[in-house]
Amino acid sequence: MLLLLSPAKSLDYETPVPPALAARATRPLMVDQAAGLIDVLKHFNPAQVSSLMDLSDPLAQLNVARYGAWSRRFTDANSRPAALAFNGDVYEGLQASSFDDEDWAFAQDHVVILSGLYGVLRPLDRLQPYRLEMGTRLPVGTSKDLYGYWGDTLAAYLNQRQARAATPVIVNLASQEYAKAALRKSLKARVVECVFEDHKNGQWKIISFHAKRARGLMARWIIRQRAQSVAALEAFDSEGYAFQPALSEPDRLVFRRQLAD
């Protein structure tokens, strides 16, 4: 069973990485493809990056500098493990900084972070700072955008990771923007979606902030429980969420919790 996560726009390169963990960091698997994108991006000026990605001038300038500094050589000085570098709502729920050695080993074997630049990342894969969302309409060669650039590459990787599994399963905890790049017709695995709803102001609904955090909570729960079956996910109960069998389907698991109004 593999878990898909989205990356985050916010990054943390300030919090120190424990030396023992830095020593276990791994090299990303699709560096050649990432370098191909960098070769395109490094020719963009701040105004072009701002227009392409709808960024403020300071953010555009920051990312132009990042593209210029990006290197095929990944070191402690220019990179850190992806699960510690991303710093958005999902990763607040994941709380990777609290993992022990066994948690990291399980996560490395079961978590796949999708990325517009890197394609796929394992939690311990070294990440150099960047901004490139999967939905960006960046023309590369004959491809009009990143979905075209990555094509079936990500699905093929997931197939390869689960080639020996009798019943391959993907638990999709990624946003639609990123899942769309991996969950293609060529994917052989069963795909299970997790839906997180909160009750607020008299109705049940998906609240973006809470749902993103809940995806991280679910990934963390799976890692800490060493869960390896869809049935096991029904026991997820972090921060008040509970499985709703009457609202769920075999490949769409619904979890709800009551928020204070």
UniProtKB/TrEMBL annotation:
Residues of the signal peptide: none
InterPro entries: YaaA
Family note: Belongs to the UPF0246 family.
Designated name of the protein: UPF0246 protein AACH00_11635
Protein species of origin: Ideonella margarita
